Amino acid sequence: MPETLPMLTRVMRDPMASLEEIANVVGRDMDLTATLIRRCNSAMYRGAEPVETADEAMLRLGLDAVLEMVMTLVMKSMYRLPPEAGAELAGLWDHSLLVGILTRQLTQHMDVSRPISFTAGLLHDIGKVFFIKASTEEYVDVLRKARQRHRAVADLEEELLGTNHATIGGEMLSRWKLPANIVTGVWLHHHTELGGEQNPLARAIELADTISYVLGCGLSDQYARCQNSQAIQEILHLTPTELPRLIMNSLDEAEEVRRAIG
To answer: What would the pLDDT profile of 131-160 be if each residue is shown by its tens digit?
Structure first.
């Protein structure tokens, strides 16, 4: 588990949390400090004057945006994969980042905090990381077979490994004591038959995952499991004209975040 994750988890759970609770972590990490300042001075957030310190950046961005950025940087190191993973999972980080941003956009009408929905989307495929690090050769073979057979990876995982990355990811996030709604959202985003249809966050992740695949972001030649995107849009109270706007906003933000974090 990343060293700073317990602190981030406490902040996400506390509705009265303040910037001071993550200021110590930011202050100890020069790379994180520089990244926050770059993000704050980007076109998306820049005000009348550029900021020069982490404190100024945090005040301008606000708690939710700072928490998302810190979580992004903390978890990025988790997605460093062995060379043997090769092209099969080379785009996993870009895919996960876009799904995190899309999930937050798709759940804007829900009673769920912005950092919670973003983190759930960002970590939705963390089970693939655990698979590849536990048994690289075997899991790469599963990914190749899924591509050759034009099948969703989760289905081939079930057939060949007896479980799938959503289950593994949910189990590990539960052991790391992340908030229950993040754990449930990740666990159920490929398990609508187990109650995912009653979990709007899981459905939002499922739709965001599908959109990212359709856009070809990150994981080429992998296939989504989502069967009824129209029903999911209705569950999330999205209008037909709203979804294209959310997608464009998410793509712009994902590009801006990639520039900020390098």
So the answer is: 998 988 999 999 989 888 888 889 999 999
